[in-house]
Every structure is written in C-alpha cells, then in structure tokens.
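Quick one before lunch.
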Amino acid sequence: MQASYSLATRPAWVPRGASATRRRSPPSTAAVPRRPPPSSAVAAAAPPVLKHRRTTHSMPPEKVEVFRSLEDWASQNVLPLLKPVDQCWQPHDFVPDSSLPTDEFTDRVAQLRERTAELPDEYFVVLVGDMITEDALPTYQTMINTLDGVRDETGASQCPWAAWTRAWTAEENRHGDLLRTYLYLSGRVDMLMIERTVQYLIGAGMDPGTENNPYLGFVYTSFQERATFVSHGNTARLAKAGGDPVLARICGTIAADERRHENAYAKIVEKLLEVDTTSAMVAIADMMRKKITMPAHLMHDGRDPKLFEHFSAVAQRLGVYTADDYADILEFLIGRWGLEKLEGMTVEGRRAQDFVCGLAPRIRRLQERADERARMMAPQSARFSWIFNKEIKL
Ligand SMILES: [Fe+2]
Ligand SMILES: [Fe+2]
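Model of the fe (ii) ion complex:
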C-alpha cells in the first residue's frame, strides 16, 4: 500500500464527464526516447528485500483435519464457482483475430493502436504493473501449494482444494496473456523491459507472510482478489474515459473473474469462521497486523530499486488502487464475514476481533496525515523503463 498521495478521483488527463474524444495524435517513433544501453551501475540496482520473519507451518498439525472434513463442503460450495472452460472467455476473443488475412489483421492492429493512442503514459505504467502482477502467476500457484492441508500433493490430485487451485490458476492464466498481447500490439510500451521485469519477479517470488497456514492463506487471497477486482475495475473506467472501449471491456471482464474468485475465497474464510471461529478470527487479525502485501511487491526491472513503490504511487495518484481502497476492502470483508457480531470466542479471539473491527478508521487517519505531509513536500517523479524511461509524476 502506498500511503503518500491523496486519493485521486479523476486524473488530470481524464476530462470531466469524459467521452472518447481524440485529444492527442499517436506518438511518433521519433518522439519516443530510445532505451539507454544497460550500464553496469544501473544493471546492478539491488532487488527489493523480504520483510517478514520466516515463520513456517504455524497451523497446529491436528488442524489439517478441519480442511479434510470440509472437502465435501468445498466440492459443493467452492468448485461450482469455477466456470466450465467452454463457457469461459479467452484472450483471443479480445484481440485482432490472427486467422484474418494479413491486410485485415493489420487494419485491426492499426485500429487498436489508434484507440490506445489516446491514453497517457501514466495509464500505461499502471496497466503494465497490473499485467506484470498477473503474469507472475506461477508464484501464486506455488504460494497456495505451500499451504498445509490444502496443497496439491501430486500435481493432479483429485482433492477439491487441489482441483480448485489448478482450475483457478487456469482461469487466472488468461488475465496476464490478454493484457500482455494487448500491450504488445499497442506499441506504447517497452516489451523487453516488461519481460525482464516479469522474469525478475517470478524469480524473486513473494512473501505474503502466510506461514504455510491455510487460515492465513485464505484470508490473504480473499483480500487480494478483491484488491485486483477494484484495480482492474478502475483501469476499465479510465480506459473508457480515455477513448478505448475495447480495453475497458478487457479490464472489466478480468475484474468480473476476480470478483468470482474473491467470492470463493471469502466463502472459505466464512466457513472457517463458522467451524473454528477463534482461529479464523485470529488469522484475520494476524494478516491485517502484517498488512496485506501486494503480490508483486518484489518487482524489479534491474534499474529502479524502488520500482514497486513508484508503480504504487502512480496507481494511487490515478485512483486505480489507493490507501482508501485498502480500508474499503477491509470494511467490506468485516461486513461480509459479520466480524463485529461474532460470539463465543476466547479472549485471544475477542482481542483479534476488537483490533480488526477498529482498524479501518485508523488506516484512514494515518492516510490523511501522510497526505498532509506529502502536500508539504516538493512534487516527485520517476522514470519508468516500461515506457521507454519517460518521466511520470508520482
Ligand atoms: Fe487475475
Ligand atoms: Fe484473481
């Protein structure tokens, strides 16, 4: 979460009541700064470091039984939230049809480029960051398979938890593919630097602090799926306002998938709260104390050692994902899980409940103070390799 910028409701480049009016001509190749050759000093920029202590297997072993006993429930309540493959959209539905004759295909690409020409570079910084986050999918499947009691023990396990994880991954896999293809065809971004960032990120992994503990893991995924729903929903809104209805539909379609996934993970936590109230409540508090780390927090392009921070600052300024969204998601989940009304918990559970239920206003107060401090500081900017090293206001 970036906490230094005020909450943008309408970026400067989106006119009030914006329509798809053309505001800029497409960027000429001559106007695009050439990528500087990698210097050893720049290439040596250190990747981000891990922040959590390495606690592992924090769920007491006997609790594996909780997940075993919920297998039938998961088959009946979680697996139906997946969509059959033949009813799913595919990336190819949204990009120029590759089977078209060459001239027609080229026309479609030209139309795509004309549409994206309206969108400013800062929008692409955020869209690229979102795409890179999606593209690091191997890391997320790995992360879920670190969780005791629900991991895929064979790679093709018939256990419903494992079946869900594989099919969820297969659904998610379309998100990065589609955004990547669209960005590639747009010609607006430096694909080589994006691809390097993805390679660095998958190599770095992630550190969400879930400790092989599915109570913690499913709290994390509930929060995170909603965060991606919010973020893709906002890039859809901005694409529409900036003159690209197809990109708006793409981001909106991905957002709808995230919503369905959020529903599945939130249902699992809801069930854990029903069958093991104190442990589930304590897990929610634990994750919120650690703060929910964004999945791509270890992103690196070999150049900017603060790449994730800079990307997050632009996302915050454009209103794509903000500190206010973080507090909103928390409040939403508190309501959905009925945390304020939970009863019958131990002292530890009640303490966790008090902490979580009072947290959102505290986050908002801290954000207001951070905004205040940011207003006193000189405006900052950063160069992003993803958009040919152009400088963007943070
Ligand atoms: Fe996704
Ligand atoms: Fe998702």
